């Protein structure tokens, strides 16, 4: 019997996990990536909950642990850098999780472990999708025509192909009104191996986190955010600099260093919710289908898990492809819903605007991280948790 064929659009965590598991279960897989080459780069992500199990099944748990960012814990600091609270970071799913890794390192680890035979096309993307009774025909910007049994859209939050297949009635994009700037900056003597987090009035956060390369990963996150999509990096950084006027601690140093940082990633947080993740021979995976944003947390874990669950359902001989896609969706949806439904008041708590709100936040932080309440605080950082076993994967 001929192998089934899949085209996966996007070569990051979701796309590579999907390619890995489909290939391992006998599919012929082509990955199309819009960027001209594999994209390294990106800042801290973590692997939590059931995604840890997926990594184990890939045989990559130890490799990911070895590529750890070296972060030892998470603390909140005041404007002078004095620690005001320490978040629980013991165990697999604390604020600093057991598996903390840079996005590029995680993607590279999966890429290097791909079974032989996955075809890559870089510098191209799908421009038209023609789904029929027997399969799907894809046309690319460069004029390629690809025929497949399955087309997986794993293009991240700003996927273009999503709109080609699924209409506005299916896709709901919610702007969370948060702007985030991530960048790699030089390490100084003042830095250490903890994630240090400072909140300032008018909803401005400042974060410094260690990496395994002797540099520091800086994050500025603020709400209300700015409309920076379409702006150049210089224009965006100028907007952010104005926003951070008057913020102390390490903010001035970070702003200066971002100007020359080799690795800046800017995001305006947008949740993606879709009423269905599959139609005909097309299916969504990762941020393209359900971007949970760092506010929900666990985007990388869900993206990793999606590849496994999709391949396992498709390998189940008792169901046809349509039933497998439906089963994939029902398995993944509770995990996604769990992190997308943000608790009421979370935004005001995460991004205090006034001095009073900031002071209240400080009190809550101290209470929540006090010894009796630490187990409750630890629960807040748990994502991709489920009592369900991963579906069995036939024919590994
Ligand atoms: C370069 C980069 C840096 C990142 N840095 C951070 C970070 O610092 N912190 C953080 O929390 N998250 C970051 N993310 C997002 C994070 O990787 C995701 O939230 C999460 O891991 C889910 O991954 P994903 O594979 O669904 O989507 P993504 O990681 O966003 O990957 C989508 C992939 O699809 C490709 N693509 C997009 N459109 C097309 C198209 N039309 N055709 C073909 N390919 C396409 C993109 O180039 C990318 O490789 C980053 C993503 C990227 C791509």
Automatic annotation (TrEMBL):
Keywords: Monooxygenase, Oxidoreductase. GO terms for molecular function: monooxygenase activity. Pfam families: FAD_binding_3. The keyword Oxidoreductase applies. Residues 7-339 form the FAD-binding domain. This is FAD-dependent monooxygenase. The keyword Oxidoreductase applies.
